[in-house]
Design brief:
The chain is of the alpha+beta class. The chain contains 16 helices and 11 strands. The chain has a 4-stranded antiparallel sheet. The protein has a 3-stranded antiparallel sheet with strand order 1-3-2, with helices on one face. Strands 4-5 form a two-stranded parallel sheet.
């Protein structure tokens, strides 16, 4: 793919860029490059490695300066021995080919999402900031990385998938408590440039409420939105002016009205899915946030009430028609008795299923599993203890008891979900 930073350099800088590239690819211990001042030379070296993140083995350099010479001697610093570098090259090449193979026939947007989701699902941020975490060998080889390594990995995968991609870099800002530079990507989808920060989305997803999820808060942003919390760029980059293809807008999950949040909350509660949305209806003040949370709570309550009503109607129907069902469908009066006994399960069965779905949607799959397991254990207890004494009806009453237990535990768990802290006076 196009070496973006190379195209923005002067002719002398491009000559140095090319000489360094040739020397690094040959794994040379030293080589001659045209003379540049130290700062300018460092910028060329750094930007070359952003253009070519596949060069993961060079982390720095020294140089020898000769006053009367048009060249300097460039001495690269490699993080591995040459034999190890070749092994890693071979392994990473095979790794990239394997990763991109399933996505080769996807659309540009789908390929971008595929790369983004791979990072969010498989890479953990390296708080120790090891040297290889700044290179593709960290995220793609070890499953750990920092922003630089993650952005380089995104570019390598996008390059392999034929998506135009470059690495953007902003400066630090000690006054705001920002100690380090930050890197992310700019991609070109459908001929338009967008910001893509997989590192920020990765971090948001790992620290989501309740459980891990893939977040898309920094997927296809324009300049206006990315620079709300990113520092200004310290190297040239294309302008990103299209704000209409942000992920949550594309998926119709970007709302300006509270009633839209309520409708989607109802749908999510019924399906037991986690609801992640983007709010653009003005400033997200404490009052607005309280209103949104109240609407989501009402949606959950309405869904629960509907399930209970439906369950009670089923109970009434089976109680009134149980005998008829037993005699005419099963030709057995005892079957009618069992149908009437099972009818009491209906409201609790609907309620337990709904509440557990909501818990699962809140990112508590483990808790949901434990609650259901407790119900299963209770049913097993009725089988071993009750059936030998009172027969098959013990199992039916055991089913009822287990559904009541599951409903109660799920309800208690939902009531204990974290609430917003009170504002101090």
């Amino acid at each position: 793919m196009e070496p973006y930073y190379y195209t923005k350099m002067s002719k002398p800088q491009q000559a140095v860029y090319y000489a360094i590239y040739q020397g690094l690819m040959a794994l040379s211990d030293s080589f001659q490059v045209p003379k540049l001042e130290g700062r300018e030379l460092s910028d060329v070296f750094f930007q070359l490695r952003l253009d070519h993140p596949e060069i993961f083995w060079a982390e720095g350099f020294h140089y020898r300066y000769y006053q009367d010479s048009a060249n300097i001697t460039f001495l690269p610093e490699y993080i591995f021995e040459k034999g190890k570098i070749k092994e890693h090259q071979k392994a990473l090449k095979a790794r990239v080919e394997k990763l991109v193979r399933p996505a080769m026939k996807l659309s540009e947007w789908e390929k971008e999402k595929y790369v983004h989701d791979f990072i969010c699902e498989n890479v953990h941020y390296d708080k120790l900031k090891k040297s290889y975490s700044h290179e593709i060998i960290g995220p793609l080889g070890q499953g750990v990385g920092v922003c630089e390594g993650i952005a380089k990995s995104v570019k390598v995968l996008c390059d392999a998938l034929g998506i135009w991609c470059m690495i953007a870099i902003c400066g630090n800002n000690p006054e705001k408590g920002i100690k380090y530079r930050h890197t992310w990507n700019i991609v070109k989808i459908g001929g338009t440039y967008y910001h893509l920060d997989a590192t920020f989305d990765n971090t948001l997803g790992k620290h989501s409420f309740g459980a891990k999820e893939i977040r898309y808060d920094y997927f296809n942003l324009d300049d206006k939105n990315i620079f709300r919390d990113h520092e200004p760029l310290i190297a040239p980059a294309p302008a990103c002016t299209d704000g209409d293809h942000f992920y949550y807008k594309e998926k119709k999950m970007s709302f300006t009205k509270t009633e839209d949040v309520y409708k989607r909350s109802l749908q999510a509660a019924k399906k037991g899915k986690m609801l992640t949305f983007h709010w653009r209806g003005g400033y997200l003040t404490r009052a607005v946030l309280d209103e949104l949370l109240d609407l989501i709570k009402k949606a959950v309550q309405k869904t629960t009430q509907l399930c209970v009503i439906l369950g009670l109607l089923c109970t009434l129907g089976f109680l009134l028609g149980g005998n008829w069902i037993g005699i005419h469908l099963f030709h057995n009066a005892l079957a009618g008795l069992y149908v009437r006994t099972l009818s009491w399960n209906c409201p609790f069965l609907f309620l337990a299923t709904t509440l557990c779905s909501i818990l699962h949607g809140l990112g508590k799959p483990t808790l949901t599993m434990l609650i259901n397991l407790s119900g299963a254990i209770l049913r097993i207890g009725f089988i071993f203890v009750g059936i030998p004494r009172i027969g098959l009806s013990a199992y039916l009453w055991g089913m009822l008891a287990s559904q009541i237990l599951i409903s109660g535990l799920a309800l208690i768990s939902l009531r204990k979900t974290p609430k917003l802290p009170k504002q101090s006076a």
